[in-house]
Amino acid sequence: MEEVDKKLKNFIINSYASGVELSCLPSLGKLGQRSFGSSSSSGGSFLDFRFLSFLQRWRPDGMRKHQLVLVFLICAIGKHYLNELFADEDCIVGMPQQLQKAFRPPESSCEFCSHVVTDAVPRLANVDPDEFERKFAYSGGPVIVTDATANWTAVERFDYWYFKDVYQRYGRRRKAARCQFFPYRTGFRSIWEALSLDEARVNYAAGTEPWYFGWSNCDPEIVRELRQHYGRPYFLPKASENNAVDWVFMGGTGLGAHMHVDNVRLPSWQSQLKGSKEWILAPPPECYYSCNFLSVVVKTGETIVLDTNRWYHKTNVLSGELSITVGAEYD
Q1: Contacts of 4 (CB under 8 A, 6+ apart)
Q2: Measured between alpha carbons, how far is 47 from 179 in angstroms, rounded to an integer?
Q3: Global pTM value
Q4: DSSP state letters, 265-326
Q5: Which among 7, 10, 45 has a CA at the least distance from the CA of 24?
Q6: What letter does residue 260 receive in the DSSP assignment?
Q7: Mean pLDDT of all residues in 174-199
Q8: Which one of 29, 51, 169, 257 is least enclosed by Cβ atoms within 10 Å?
């Protein structure tokens, strides 16, 4: 494990920039104040001050306040309809992953990971929701619950062909097109392309390319369809609610998600409906020397709970059955 620990640490340290202290950013606000004369006393970005200055100074001759408001309303409505028009299109310029990580707020404490080691990741069964809330729900994780899927028909029902049938029946709905799609290294451009593979590739026949992809299920009707076969995990705190959007990840041996940290609001659970998957977890950069790198295997029927906003994570589908997982955030 020491060798794995060292390799993982070197991998992450030598990869993308992972975090920048945000305490350096107020200097940008001061620069904005000096350059553009903003009266704001709070910290802010250079662009914030440029925009405020623009609003204060720009007004064509003879334009009254209500006319200026009307102009911005027209712009806002126009933006809405442009978003509608291009909802199915890829962004011309995406936000670089390195930049997203650069503005991740640093952890104020490493307590959430300092006590966790691979051999001591809790594995629970028949756990009381009150106990789970008190000890695990908001601790940052990870924790594995082994019996959460016991009564779910999804364990038997879900496979590639089930999802293909669902999305064919509902068609190319605009709501489904807006849901986030994760192609990983497949090159797929949409959920419909990913669900149009031939039988040989689906079954990993010799000579076919491997595949792994995921998506957020934000179409309310498809959510209702899928949730007939699984539900809110029994162990979650009684007052908590699942997010309205679920995630599904599916694919075969040797593939998985790259090392990354999520940008979501809440902790989450992910249930392994078929197959098994290894999770490689890394602490954020500010906790490298206080916390351990972890390797945890989640088997069929098990559910992993953790805060993916804090833990960097990578997954590998292990040999055997196709991997299918479903998950969601909870408050």
Answers
A1: 293, 295
A2: 30
A3: 0.71
A4: SS-EEEEEEES-EEEEEE--GGGTTTS--EEEEE-TT-EEEE-TTTSEEEEEEPSSSPEEEE
A5: 45
A6: B
A7: 91
A8: 169
